[in-house]
Every structure is written in structure tokens, then in C-alpha cells.
Design goal:
This protein has 179 residues and is mainly alpha-helical. It is built from six helices and no strands. The longest helix has 23 residues. The chain is globular and about 50 Å long.
């Protein structure tokens, strides 16, 4: 008598994404970019619609739900922010065909140092998102630039050059300060 493996039919816990699924996710959110909130995220219903949209592309593994889509979107935003940050550094090259375009010993040394940042763990982790782009661009960059037309910084307190901030702090707003 054969014993059945109780986990044989269990759905995988981790969502593995094919390039086709990621492309479909990015294109869907690009088409629905007007639904993006101030934090750069979308509503749960939008993520659920993306999950339904990409379901026919599933080859194997876990069927993606709104949570998986939200997590993947967060990872794509991290990559986008890493590219924007790298590109905004003075003297750092970026083009979307050749990425950072690292060639020559001096450029390679500088590139290695960029990933060897000590002390600021969060900063070093964000640098790691740049590793795949040593000499190639990112196929989703133009889509995310459209979704985030003012860069990757989002939220009420994000600085956006060229826009005015209608609310400035003034000491009179603080009740604990006596005149």
C-alpha cells in the first residue's frame, strides 16, 4: 500500500515570476498609472486585477494573488529608486542601453566601491539593486519613469524640485514655544 505525500499537492509558498509575468504586471500598472496613490503604491483592487490579468501566463508554481503582486511591485520600485539614486550622483553614468557602462579598471574599481559601503546597511542594500546593471539597461525603466514622472520619491514630504510647497513650518504653529 503506497503512502501519499501530504505536501505533494500543496501549492508552493513562494511566488516565482517569469519575465512574461513581470512584463505584463509592469505594462498593466503603466496603463493604470492614474490609480497610483501618493506613496507609489496602488489599491488592493488594482493588484487583484493585475493578478487576474497575469493568471493565463502562469507556467508553473504559485498562482499570484494581490499580495504577491504588491510585493513584486515593491521590489520593482526598489530597483527603480536604486537606478534614480545612482544616476543622480554627480559623475555617475547611466543610459538605458548600457546601464552604468562600466569599462576600464578605474570604472570597475569605483563600481566595486559602490557596493562595499560600510555602516549604512539600508544604503548598501539599495546599492545591491544596481548590480545587474553594470553594462545593461533595465527594460522597465521607461514604464516606471512614466508612473513616477517626478522620480521615485513619493509621499507628502517628498521633495520635488520645481514644485512649490504650499505649507511651510513656522514657529507660531508650535504651541509649546512661548513668545
Amino acid at each position: 500500500m503506497a503512502t501519499e505525500d501530504p505536501g505533494a499537492d500543496a501549492e508552493p509558498k513562494r511566488a516565482d515570476w517569469t519575465p512574461e509575468e513581470v512584463t505584463a504586471l509592469v505594462r498593466y500598472l503603466h496603463e493604470h498609472r492614474a490609480e497610483r496613490g501618493d506613496t507609489g503604491s496602488f489599491r488592493q483592487s488594482t493588484y487583484a486585477n493585475v493578478a487576474d490579468h497575469i493568471r493565463p501566463l502562469l507556467v508553473s508554481g504559485k498562482v499570484k494573488d494581490h499580495k504577491n503582486v504588491s510585493i513584486k511591485w515593491g521590489a520593482l520600485k526598489q530597483t527603480y529608486n536604486a537606478i534614480v539614486t545612482y544616476h543622480s550622483k554627480s559623475g555617475e553614468h547611466w543610459d538605458n542601453e548600457h546601464g552604468a557602462n562600466i569599462s576600464g579598471a578605474l570604472a570597475a574599481e569605483s563600481w566595486s566601491k559602490y557596493f562595499a559601503v560600510k555602516g549604512f546597511l539600508k544604503f548598501a542594500q539599495s546599492n545591491a539593486h544596481m548590480k545587474p546593471f553594470r553594462n545593461k539597461g533595465w527594460e522597465y525603466l521607461e514604464f516606471l519613469e512614466d508612473i513616477f514622472p517626478q522620480g521615485g520619491a513619493t509621499g507628502a514630504h517628498a521633495f520635488r524640485a520645481g514644485t512649490s510647497n504650499p505649507h511651510f513650518w513656522h514657529y507660531s504653529h508650535c504651541t509649546s514655544i512661548r513668545r
